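Instructor's aside before we start: the two examples that follow are unrelated to each other. I chose them only because their records fit on one page, so don't look for a connection. First example below.
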Amino acid sequence: MVSLVAFLAAWFLLASLGGDPTVLPSPLDLVRPFLQEAGSGELLEHMSATILRVIAAFSIAMAAGFGLGLIMGTYPGFDRWLDPWLVVFLNLPALVLIVLCYLWIGLTDVAAVAAVALNKIPGVATVIREGARALDPDLKAMARVYQVRRTTFLHHFVLPQLAPYIAGAARSGLAVIWKVVLVVEFLGRSNGIGFQIHLYFQLFDVTMVLVYSLSFIAFMLAVEWLLVQPAESRVRAWRQA
């Protein structure tokens, strides 16, 4: 909280020293444009479009990355076969994936979500693979002796051990996906926060760029504080007991 107050104070000071609201408006200069955008429904419309893309890309990336990471961490043969491709996609710039998806699929939401998901799947798979490698072999042996069903073994033996890794992958994945979705919208969509930032960038409207950027950041922080951190604390609670 103290750092936030210090940031706002520094912002007010720099804005007053600059004296040009077209270059750096003060926080107070953003209030009226924000209320106008919120009141007209424009902000909600574009924010909703971005959030839907984030949810879709995040869900695909977590599901595919979890399955891929679990297979690679459990079966060394698959790991040796897939590891080179994992390295390639880990180091492939997001911009390349975005451009290729738009060229191959078209300027559609499918291409946008696919580009974001493909960018994050390797990261999730890497984290889950390390968790799968760290699974307790004694628990696996015990489950085999007692002939535990595969679904029961996955639910009660594997998932609790992987929970911290899943939480870590989800947190880092969400942070990256927020950013990549804005780039996708900036380059090739007709709505969303990224599209609006692109629009006002072309108009050199710093005030509106800040309004949409800060609105998005505020929502992202709300998700982090209200959903991600409580979920992560609950997952890690058993380690502190």
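Example two begins here.
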Amino acid sequence: MSLKSTLAVFWRTLSSPPATISLGVLTFGGFITGIIFWGGFNTAMEFTNTEDFCIYCHEMEDNVYAELQETVHWENRTGVRATCPDCHVPHEWTNKVARKMQASKEVWGKVFGTINTPEKFEAKRDELARHEWARLEANGSLECRNCHDYDSMDWAAMSDEAVYYMRPAAELNTGCINCHKGIAHHLPQSSGESPVLVVLESKAVTDLEEGQQYFAIDAVELFEDEALTQTAGSLELGAPVEVLARSGNKMQIRLAAWRKEKGFGRVLYHDFGLNMRKAVLNKDTATNAAIVHASETRNDDNTGLDWSEVTVDLWAVSRGFVKDEQVLWDVAAESYASDCSTCHAQPDPEHFSANAWPAMFNGMVGFTNFDEAESKLVLTYLQKHSSDFVEAH
């Protein structure tokens, strides 16, 4: 029999209706086969949801998995532990399959060793974290809501501070990851230049004039002498100075400030009784009466401390300043509005006093994406626009 004839017989056999097997038997057989297949598929799917499997296929055992074990999601008073799939795989079947298909691409790093050393992983941590944050932001933190649900929260059992921030988040149905980055794994270390400083530097004045007032856009090193050899301390971001003299790329500046008559008086403040830093001086500079000229002391009834108004003449490099302080506040206001309204409706700057803002701000800045420079700028903006500076408040 030729090959052509053999194939023809085979096809007739496959396409011919059964002569002895009933339709019921075929249906029942197909049903059983489907159950076996479906059960096997789901069993395999659940096996891929175990931590052992996650560690085997993903490069994580010595980094993010170890970091998880240091957090409340691993060990806590209730004994409820969140495993890898609890936080990274949705429970709903359709979303789960989609996530598994996405995760298959991540095995590439394991196979080809792109992140198989601590150094390689840290170099990619920022990129990997941003991918996961973006995914969770896009799906409304679906995996987090496997366990956390606004409707199930007992507001009466929460602290007043937690309720203050969580109720507005619940009303807006804000995704968990918007506020709680770094809750289970270390945050990436920023290695690039602050975006805020890049913006401000583009607006900096290049030719400063004598007799004019300017505002620092970043910390500025201060010196006692024109040669810039004797360090005196540093100027804080947003601090106003008056230019007394110019010498090439150097300038003599005058600081008008207040200081507490306690200790060496190294910290200079913007105004009487307000903990708003303008500069920090070295001990020798702060105690040098030829450099720091102090007026008579004035007592602060709120703290019992004596303050004195001072003027300090020092030298600095003539760069890193803007002429109009509103430039600083425009950038700060935009950062405050965009980052601090993600979780809740942010309070107006005048809602708190200048001395109250640092505690409020420092308690929440960890939930934002602010770097150090942006944090200082926004806090200074809030203090400068606090109730102490708003007459109508």
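Strands lie at 213-216, 220-223, 231-235, 240-247, 250-260, 267-269, 277-281, 292-299, 306-317, 321-322.
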